[in-house]
Each structure stands twice: as structure tokens, then as C-alpha cells.
Design a protein that fits this description.
79 residues; mainly alpha; 0% strand
Length: 79
């Protein structure tokens, strides 16, 4: 797998993954799978569409994961 893709969920990532984090991971994945660092003009649309779809799938995955035994964040007003 592409070594540039990092884990985007706590506790590995201290805060929630940003849109930029998810897009970067999706771009690395599409580059790896397609074998192209940057697509030719005639492949640009399908390349960018794949990145967008994978970014959205990543968002849904991270929103749906339940991580048990992870570091719990305390409530801001907890004493």
C-alpha cells in the first residue's frame, strides 16, 4: 500500500481528520491504483471524480467508525 497514506482516526490522529487530510489520502490512493502521478488531459475528469468519490467514502467511513478502548476526550467543563 502507499506509504504516504496515514491513518486518519483517533487515537492515531489526535484531532478529527480534516477535508484536506481526507482529500490527500484519496489522491494518494488514486495515484497508486492508476499508476499516474498526474493524469493526462483526457483522463483528468475520471481521475478527479475518483478522488472526490474516495474522499466522500473516507468521510462516511470515519463518521461511522466506533473505536473502542481509544483515548476518551473529557468534556470541556469537566472538573
Amino acid at each position: 500500500m502507499c506509504r504516504s497514506i496515514k491513518t486518519l482516526r483517533p487515537p492515531v490522529l489526535r484531532e478529527e481528520a480534516t477535508e484536506e487530510d481526507m482529500h490527500a489520502a484519496a489522491l494518494q490512493y488514486v495515484r497508486k491504483v492508476s499508476g499516474f502521478r498526474a493524469p493526462a488531459a483526457h483522463n483528468r475528469e475520471v481521475f478527479e471524480q475518483a478522488v472526490d468519490e474516495i474522499t466522500e467514502a473516507t468521510r462516511r467511513l470515519l463518521e461511522g467508525l466506533e473505536v473502542r478502548g481509544g483515548v476518551r476526550r473529557s468534556a470541556p467543563d469537566a472538573a
